[in-house]
Structures are given as C-alpha cells and as structure tokens.
Amino acid sequence: MGTKRFLTASILSIAIAIPTIAQFNIDDDVSDFGLWTSVGLEKKINKKWSAEFEGELRTADALNEVSRYSFGISTSYKICSWLKADAGYT
After folding, report:
1. Which of 15, 59, 66, 84 is exposed most, by the fewest CB atoms within 10 A?
2. Backbone phi, psi, residue 11, to 5°
3. CA distance 73 to 51
C-alpha cells in the first residue's frame, strides 16, 4: 500500500513540475510565467432554468502583460433528467 502511494505521488510531482520547467527560456534567462484565472457564477432560476456568468483573465511575461480577458453569459434549460440545452455568448 505504501509503494502505490509513493509511486502515485512521484508521478504527480513529475507531471506538475514538467510544465513549470518548460516555461523557462534558457537562451535569454527570462521566465515566461503567466497566470490563468477564471471565475464563474451560476444561479438557478427554477427547476428547469439557470443562468451563468463567467470571467477569465490570462497574463504573461511574468504577470506584466494581459494576454487575454473575456466575459461570457449563458442560460440553460433542463429538458429532462439527463438532457440540458445551453446557449451563451463570450
């Protein structure tokens, strides 16, 4: 049991570390660190209808540059217990 946990933790650590290493440019010693952040709100109107709002901000160049920002709004209608229709705009 301990070996499986160690192996899983090792694989996860390596999987998290590889993208971090890949963002460092060796040629000019500049880190291209960026942050991708999104926030979403959902409000149920009744049993079948709901509305959603989402905002997203992406930065680059060590958080000095905004590379993308977006806002979106959508609404959804629950047709039956296993099917929902959704329409939105970003």
Report:
1. 15
2. -65, -45
3. 8
pTM: 0.55
Q: Say if residues 74 and 86 touch (Cβ distance below 8 Å).
A: yes
pLDDT in tens, 18-77: 555 545 555 555 567 788 888 999 999 999 999 999 999 988 887 788 889 999 999 999
In our burial notation (b when 16+ CB lie closer than 10 A, e otherwise), range 6-19 reads: eeeeeeeeeeeeee
Beta-strand relationship, 30-31 and 24-25: antiparallel
H runs (alpha helix) in 1-90: 2-22
